[in-house]
Queue: 2 jobs
Job 1
Amino acid sequence: MHELSIAMSIVEMAQEESERCGQAQVLAVHLRLGQLSGVVKEALLSSYEMACEATPLEGSQLLIEEVPVEVFCPKCDGPRALGSIQWFCCPECGTPTPEVLHGKELEVVALEIEE
Amino acid sequence: MTTEPRLVEVRKNVLKQNDIIARALRDRFREAGVLAVSFVSSPGSGKTAFLEKTLTLLHSRYRVAALVGDLATENDAARLGRSQVPVKQILTGTVCHLDAAMVQNALDGWDLTQLDFLFIENVGNLVCPSSYDLGEDLRFVLLSVTEGEDKPLKYPTIFNSADVAVITKSDLAAAVEFDEAAVLRNIQAVRPGMEVLKISAKTGEGLAEYLEYLERRCSSSRAGAAASN
Ligand SMILES: [Zn+2]
């Protein structure tokens, strides 16, 4: 399980950002989590709580927006939402495609702070 | 005085630090003209035997070295010491994957221009390594015929992050009634167009094709490096 080390990086990143905002209190961290990021949402949420312990972020929330996988279909010549990550093909025309446009995100989007 | 909570935009990749190091490693490999290949698999897929075979086969004609990620309880590196090529162990403790910084630290003091191939054996795990770019040119995902044909469907993320699938222990295929067509179908489902190699470190099946593949990739990456220099 690598979610704990990921959670610690998130806490660290949030702390740096809040210091930049004059030691503001962080209420929540908004995260975009791709379906292909290799990170499990539930494990990350519980790891986040652990990672926050005894830091200024203790009690803050991790708000996760899951990002579905979007592939590029060479036949339709455009982006297509993938139906299942067990089946990499265009949902419209059935063409197999390995080209992932979205779904690998693991990104801190914003902080909710209180000054 | 308290104000209303407000949103501050951040927009930063959590693994940014890893990705920066991985990119630097990739540049370093390219400049040195070394092909970096990593292996990922679940524990017990024959990864160490495969790496040992790889090193033994290559070392008479090429300059080869390996980094081996081991949990605190393992010692795959010692076994690989027998292959007479430089092998360095990366002890990850309880961490279930390698990251780019571990690779960078392990390479400290190594002159990469003296190498043709660098192999990096990740810790046996099909989940965690998928998030971490190690700067490798090629990532091989190994699965043995004893693991079941549905493995790619259970771990689509790691298969998707890899370049080549290697089916190992092919000598046991008949004994375990391995359904090759099913596994090929499943691999293509999660990673269309993925190259698949089938080998047995024991009988030598598929090793010639495998070597030929590595040599081809090595010379084409050199040609690419020469063109961009
Ligand atoms: Zn299509």
Job 2
Amino acid sequence: MKPILKGILWAVIGFTGGAGLLTLVRLALGMSLWDLEPAISVGYIFGLTGWLLGVGVWDYWARAWFGLPLKKFEANGLSRYFSFNLDHKVIGLQYLAVFFFMLLTGGLFAMLMRLELMRPGREFMDPAVYNQIMSLHGIFMIAVAVAVIIGSFGNYIVPLMIGADDMAFPRLNALSFWLTPLVPLLLLSSLFFGGWDSGWTAYAPLSVTNRTGQLFYNLAFMTLGLSSIVGAVNFLTTVLTKRAPGLTWGRLPIFVWSIIATAILSLLATNFIFVVLLLATLERIAGMAFFNPAGGGNPILYQHLFWFYSHPAVYVMALPGLGVVLEVIAHFSRKPLFAYKWAVAGFLGITALSFTVWAHHMFTTGMPESRTAFMFTTELISIPTGFIFLSALGTIWQGRLRLNTPMLFGLAVIVNFLIGGITGIFLADVPTDIQLQDTFWVVAHFHYTIVSTQIFGLVAAIYYWLPKFTGRMYSERLGKIHFWWMFVTFNTTFLPMFWLGLNGMNRRVAQYPAPLGDVNMWVSLNAFLLGASFAFFVVLIALAWVRGPRAVSNPWAARTLEWQTASPPPHDNFPREPKVVGAPYDYGVPDSTHAIVPAADSGND
Amino acid sequence: MTTTTVPHTRYSRLNINRIGLWLFILSESGIFIALLAVRFYLEGTSRPEALNQTLGLIITAILLLSSLTAYRAETAIAQGDQAGFLRNTLATLILGLVFLAGVGIEWSQAFREFPPQSGFGRVFFAMTGMHAFHVLTGLILFGLLYFNGRRGAYSAESHWGVEAIVKYWHFVDVVWVFFYPALYLLS
Ligand SMILES: [Cu+2]
């Protein structure tokens, strides 16, 4: 805990110094001495720097820039997880902890929303409070969806899968992780400043005129963006330069391809959200009217920039989950991944096309001349998505399926994502979108795409790789109970929302027409059951982690490299550098091998 | 038993660093592309008469010149010429500071003619501000280079820090090559 306390101390010093500096500048310019939002913004920049330096950047990295000797890193056991550790396996689990915490917290906010929506009228909370909770639920879950799989399993598994000893830039990796605890911290602190009510999209002009809580959303999202960019640089460099000998592009496990596609999207798109939030912050603190028409700004510009990031971002949310699914399905069907090259083309095709569709979120904002073009590009995306889908189906086809829990969750993703994809067509299509815009149809569609890929994908990944990172096995019986519980309640919660949307129930409003009351009551009760399934999952995993039976080192008889070493792997991953000699999924192909991992030197020969 | 040791990676540390830096620069250019888009979306190609064209031209020339001295600093250290390296690093540092001072003068005039709350002012201050922030970080890094160079931290064989910061500096310069005409020359 010492590094964290030091980080907090330095952050407080930095924040105070930054806010003080601003006060001096204001004094010099003859302005009023104190203004809350500028003080928070400037203070945060210095506070963030102080936090990073204090938590470990100074001791283990930056001292060298000034010719000082680096501190010796000495943390082991549990304290490794509370320090500036450079091991990708530690960082992966650190990511998992932060974002799983956010997932559970965001889930609690969803429960509160469903509590209010049980009945049509005003029940438990003020409509303004409802909007704050809705906004918090939205951004918590968006942060989870953007970062949880790539942060945890991307970090833990990708270097193992490519036979590397670590990521290309271990210190940057630790840096990108230590930015992330600030995200939930900032978002929860917003409640002390009146919260904010503009949802996760934070459309202007509302977001440049509402309470100070909005500023915390801006700062949190920018911080998350910074972490994403640093992570993306690291992932791409790692895959480009650290693959084991023989691991050609055509032999790369499909999960690695999904992480490559995700990293490209993060790398290229994230700075657009950074700019739009920066401009919105400047509008709040310096009166530079970019977006508010009252001051001569243009709110449509906000939407253009916001969606130029946020549409690619929905693929940042979807692709890692789809990568996990293809990975799991290939291993549990005991067959080569069907149409491997087309699946890769699918990931890369989605990556390219996702930069051409952003304005499909703006069909109702008054730009009739370009709607058809964006409808066309949006529907075009179903082609590469179809590649991934068909690859999954073709792999299952005539496979010798092993229906273990990870596989069940993988199959669930296919079913749910199909529903998400088909209902998306009605939103891509201009005439229907104009009717369905801002209704619960959108809510249902979005949850069917993002929860099914990222969250079901995450759960599949946790079951699949649990023996890898804990060395222990979960209970297959409890896992299957959990599967049916979560799969059924997910569908009974979200399927009726399509009907609610068609019947005119608006999203982001605490009240709705009385005839929709019964269905909402049903949805809420099922939502509570769905929420409870996560509590069950946490207990189940915790039990397995603490006292589950020891797992053999390759319980799934999988061929990819992460299973060809001890569980959990030693510090440098492999005793000696592995050599890749064949494709990763050639199950059932005579005389095929993916990789050879030489044993450690015995010292005798 | 004979075992051949395969190197753990075919890429040297230097090449890994280079790839990382280029990816970072690629990502960072998104910031400036977005700001250019904002400029044209909100203000078209209009610009106020009050822009100080002489000052704009002078600071542009100074920044371009600083890219040249930065390049010379890198070549000097690559040839092991410590004195030349320090001289050119210092020159880059001074030219960069003069550029920032020029932006400061520009800003003080702009505050009167087209303040940040005005139509052109908001894009002018956002663009020059973001660019100046990158110049400032570059100067801090050059300061670090000079400080470390004086105690002989870099050599002909090992000077990744110099190479990275000089590349970053060229990038900041290229950004200005797009920003300057977008702000000063279009009409
Ligand atoms: Cu979209």
